[in-house]
Amino acid sequence: RGDGPTAVALAIGRGDVPHVAFADRRVLRYAVRTGDGWQVEDVATAGKRPLGHRVSLALDADGTPHFAAYELTRSKPLRGVVLYATR
Questions:
Q1: Within 10 Å of residue 20's Cβ, how many Cβ atoms?
Q2: Rounded to the nearest 5 degrees, what angle is found at the Cα of 25, between the Cα atoms of 18 and 21?
Q3: How far is C-alpha 29 from the chain's CA centre?
């Protein structure tokens, strides 16, 4: 309920810096901890279909984030497509 995230993923980068990906039905966002707080940006916005309740985050060897989210195409039976994005 509410407008909060329905899915969250965490990765720890170099220097133990936390990276977080989170999504609600409308947008997938990415946040990284900086010395001044959190830097947050939108990664993907849902089109006609809502984003689902799954999100994944991985950092490659260079520290680049890679995201996967589930885009719902049908609720009964549950069907969808995987959305992939990188920064």
A1: 19
A2: 10
A3: 5
